[in-house]
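Researcher: Let's run the pair from yesterday's discussion. Sequence first, then tokens, for each.
Model: Starting with the first of the pair.
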Amino acid sequence: MISLILVLYAIAYAYIIFEPNVSSVSTLMLGLVSVLLVGGFDLAHISKIVDFNTLFILIGMMTVVAILKEKGVFVEISRIILILSRGKVLFAVILINIAIFLLSSFLDNVTTILIFIPILFYTADALQVDSKPILINALFFSNLGGVTTAIGDPPNIIIYSASRQSFVSFIIHLMPVGILTLFIQLLFAKRALRVQEPETEFNVQTIRDKSTSDNWLYYLLVFTGIIVLMMLHEKIRLELGIITMLGAMVLLFVEKKNFQSVVGEVDWDTLSLITGLYFLNFSLEHVNLFATAVGVLSRINVPFILALIIFWSSLFLTGFLSALPVTMIYLAIIKKLILLGAPTTLYWALALGVGIGGNLTPVASMCNIVGNNLLKKLKDETLSFIDFTKSMLKPVLLSGIISSVFLIVYSITGF
């Protein structure tokens, strides 16, 4: 039975890596087959296998973002950034990268990239510099921003729901790492782009979208209110999944929209992939496959060494296997280690590992795949697997070292 479950998991991974277009369907199908094989599968108790809080957060946020995008909120934010740059294109690049980092902390990374990459390519043309380094920095900051909160990206949402850590706790532990890395990487990026400013300035009106709503600020305030409720979720005793779904329903109600109007904006492939991975992980746990890894790691009595092992191994595995499957496997192991007395620092180690590892290769995250596609579509240029990885290696290692220092401090102090 163990061999059969392993074969199913290996096939699922192969599709995730080599056939991403059908990976969601294949993973969900193989996951269902695996739970049927191990037995004990009952729809009445499906919540013990699938974390619906995670799925609710994703569906709610995807719906909210779809409405905000339709109302032109993100286009207006882009215009404000360009106005603040006062026509200085190099300054605009820096401001846009900061905006990418901050928005990616609360929005889907792919949405952030789709909004800002065309503007960054426009600034690259104005600066008369290669678009590729600018794209690399944007992708790095987007993935980095996704690490810093409980809703920044799907792996963090999964970790949040499994760890029972608070929304604020994620910000307290992960945001400092992100901000310090952002600051240092911006210094390197500015030095790399130190060129003479062109005489021409931005025509900000060319960025304006005709579909932008006059009430865009109202929708931004509603989104801000949702984030505030998330930060208070422990005091008001509501799960993030309920808050995001309620926020989405309020916006749909106010807009007099039905579910059909936004169904195309919900990433059903990601939801199906996550559900399939939950099924596969349940099967692996059912046959005690994680017991060996837990047994080996539980012998490590030095907390910061254990945290660093989790961090660096998940970082490099994510680079080649992608973040979601690595997150699910490591979470199953970490939860058992914590039951045996390991520190909760392991959750932060995993969040940082899969988040930063998502920068390592062009297939490590959906954000990278979309960014590469935009480079081909808008600039008719390509970044090979090797060139992408070489460009990302230095910032990934830098952020890895910074993260390691924080993890050591957290482990020693018990913070």
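Model: Moving on to the second of the pair.
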Amino acid sequence: MVQDWSTVTLQALQNLWQSFLNFLPKMIGAIVVFVIGWFIAVWIGKLIAEILKRLKFDKIFEKTGWQEALEKAEFKMTMSEFIGAVVKWVLVIVFLLAAVKILVGASYVGFFSKFVEWLPNLVAAAAIFVVAVVVANLSEKFVKAVVGKMKVGYSKLIGSIVRWAIWIFAILAILAQLGVAPEIVQILIGGFVALIVISCSIAFGLGGKDLAREFLEGLRNKFRE
């Protein structure tokens, strides 16, 4: 009986040791892939942040007040550093997925795979955000300059309206890109467009008739000149 117990125990230990030996190469491979991937991700993130700094990318956000808002929120990063950090963590997740696949096999990484497939939507949303900042800023300045040259007044008001209209559309586009309640986002977009149309109609028909008259008179005088 004692011999049977010792045989069973020895067999169990041998099986455990053999399982460990079989698992060891996978573990080492996963660690190597993740560590190398980590250094690559950090390097690429820093490289992108440095390139954006040299291209004076942060100045765009300084003019729009975003940098000041981030500092007030104790977000101690420039926008270049933030984008570099986003790229770094995206790459870290990709290499982590590769390491997990090596370690436990593809059948256990369904969630990670779905997340990685969703990452392009996050990148696209970030791109929409950056484009919105640039376009909103430039559009506001352009509208202010054009309306100001016509000397019809309200240039700041019209410029602000254009800026916020672009921002609202950008926010809705970002939500749609991220797949956040797409049906609700579509309703909001339709409602926003309807609100603009109704507001413009009311403005021209009621409270904004003086503004509309001054604006149109300015345009007419400008073309006469």
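Researcher: Give me one sentence on the second I can quote.
Model: The chain has two domains: 1-108, 123-225.
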